[in-house]
Every structure is written in structure tokens, then in C-alpha cells.
Amino acid sequence: MPSLRPTLSLDRLGSVIAVLIGVALFAGPFVIYRANRIVAGEGRMLTDALPVPGALTVVIAALAVALCAALVRGPLIRLAAASVGLGVIFPAVGWSAGFVTPPGNTFARVSPSLGFWLLALSFALLAADALTRLRLGPWARIAAVAVAAGAVALLLVSGAWDGLSLLKEYANRQDTFWREAGQHLWLALGSMIAACLVGLPLGILAHRVRPLRTAILQVLNIVQTIPSIALFGILIAPLGYLSAHVPLAAALGIHGIGAAPAFIALFLYSLLPVVANTVTGLNQVPAAVSDAARGMGLSVRQRLWQVELPLALPVILAGIRIVLVQNLGLATVAALIGGGGFGTFVFQGIGQTAIDLVLLGAIPTVALAFVAAITLDAIIDLTRRGT
């Protein structure tokens, strides 16, 4: 007997997304208008933030996406709908900045508000759900990230967002932004590389010499429990003493505040995931494989490099992924002790009650962590397929 089940059925996640879209369209302001960068602003609903044709386009597109999210289960259709929604609202918020700002006014600021962020969140959730259902391979996931990054770059280069307060903050601090971006990456990546150079041999040692394993992991666990601000503060005194009494240390830029304590703190935080995952990965190598390698006449060093480490590589890379995502976030706090990075804008914005300056530091940090997580996940999948 043929099935009478309809091809359209209510999707639970899609229903939640549809509700969020409804709230965004009819209950939340699309943008916030401020007379200048510091004063409190006033919300502008979608109908006041855009010309009538633009507002209607956003409403129609958003309602179509809501219906698709709630009723259609096909992942390709859901992904296409989410892409259309994102492709409509991102240029629209830039358009609204020019529409809301009075002609010739250079002091006014226009920022995305609750309505825009809810729409962006809803469409992003729908896209993520569709990509999950598609079960993309590692190369396809990397390609999806590249396409998304290319779309954002195109919007930035086209000037569609130049009227937004966030881009005005960037224009006023362009040189500083890229300098702090380089400092942020140096702190995150440099401390990760240093942790790998130290943590991998330490993990191998902990795996080989079992009495040392518990002691090493317990010490690193204690370090991991220290709050980042406290660890930065603990390092200030010894590094300040070292800088004052060792001329070479001062010449190398090691001081009580600045990048040195931030780098060392991030390095210490990075050791536990690298060491623990190295031990776990090596422990998971089947004993039969090690015995077979030994039977083939391979030395201890040869078994380690040719058999054990390649098999443990996916688990080790998972630890490195944790470290990189963690460090990209923690490097923001380094600005509190003069370490630089995107945290400089975050804490300046908090001090000035300028939310767009906060976002200038927060958004790149989140974006870098997101891209790093997806890219390393794909690399881990590729190594698993190769083992």
C-alpha cells in the first residue's frame, strides 16, 4: 500500500528558526541609530531602516526562508534558502546605514540591532543544519568555509558596509587593526607551536615512563585550573625581576607586562591538551600492531616514528585543535597586561561604552576560532582516512 505521508512535514528545529525569524521581523529593531559613537541610540524597525522596496524584499525573503525551514526537510533546499536569506540581509544592513544617516552627517553611527542579529543567527542555524544533514567530506567543508569567507570579503571590498559604525571604527584604526591582528596571531600560533615542540616529547616521555605520567598530567591540570587573569598576574613579578636583573632578557623584550607574560601563559595553558592527547593517542595504538612492528625488526625509534605516531596522529591533532581555538580566545585577555591583540579594541570599547569598537575586536576573534576549528576538523578527518 503506498505511503500517504506528505512530502512536507513540520521540522522541529525549523519551527524554532521560523519563530526567531518572526520575532526578528516584527518585534526587534533592524538597526540602531546614534547621533555619535558614544551616546545611546534609538532602534529603527525594518520598515524605517530601509526604503519600502528594500524592506519588502527582506520581509518576503525572510518569510520564504521561515516556511522552508519549518516545512522542507531536503538539505540542499534548506541550504539554498539559508544562502538566499544571508545574501539578502547582509547587503541590506549596509544599505540601511546610508538610508538612515542624514546627508552630510559624519558623526552619526548606524549599527546592526536585534532584528538583524536574529535573522543572521536564524539563517546561519539553518545553513549549519543543512550542512550537517549533507554530511560533507573534509574538502567540501573547507570549500564551504572558503566560499563564506569570499562572500564576506566581497562585501567588504565592494563598500556595501562602509556606512556601518563597525567599518567606520575600522577606518579610523586601520593600521592599528592589522598590527594588533598580527600580534594576536603571533600570540596564539606562536604559543601553540612552542607547546607542540615541548608537549609532544613530554607526552611521549609520559607514555614511555609510566611513573612520570601521573605527575606530569597532575601538574599540567593544576596549571589549567588557574584563571587566565590570575596566571598573567602571577607571571608579572618573576618576569619583571628577570628583566631588571638580566640585561639579555630586557634586550629580548621580556618584561613584567606586555607580550612575554601573555605568551608564557598561553604556552602553559596549551601544554595539557597536547601532552594528554599524545599519551591518549599512543595508548590507543593496538598492541598487535606494535608487536608486528617489533617482529619485523623495527627499533624502538622506528616503531615510534613509522607506526605509533602516524596511528596516534588524529588524536594528537584533536589536542592541537583544542589548543588553537582556546588560544585564539584567550589571547584577547592578553590586552589587559599590554600584550596587544584584538583584545585591545574590546577593552577600549568597554571603557568608552562603544559597542562597535568592542565588535571590532570580538568578531575577528570569533571568526578566526570558527575557521580554525572547521579546518582542523577537516584535517583530522583526512588523517583518519589515511591511517
TrEMBL record:
Protein species of origin: Microvirga terrae
Family according to the record: Belongs to the binding-protein-dependent transport system permease family.
Residue intervals of the ABC transmembrane type-1 domain: 181-376
TM annotation in the entry: 12-32, 52-72, 79-102, 114-132, 139-161, 185-207, 219-242, 248-272, 304-324, 330-350, 357-380
Membrane topology: Multi-pass membrane protein
Keyword Magnesium attached: no
PANTHER family xrefs: GLYCINE BETAINE UPTAKE SYSTEM PERMEASE PROTEIN YEHY (PTHR30177:SF30), GLYCINE BETAINE/L-PROLINE TRANSPORT SYSTEM PERMEASE PROTEIN PROW (PTHR30177)
Subcellular location: Cell membrane
InterPro entries xref list: ABC_transp_perm/SBD (IPR051204), MetI-like (IPR000515), MetI-like_sf (IPR035906)
Name of the molecule in the record: ABC transporter permease
Entry superkingdom: Bacteria
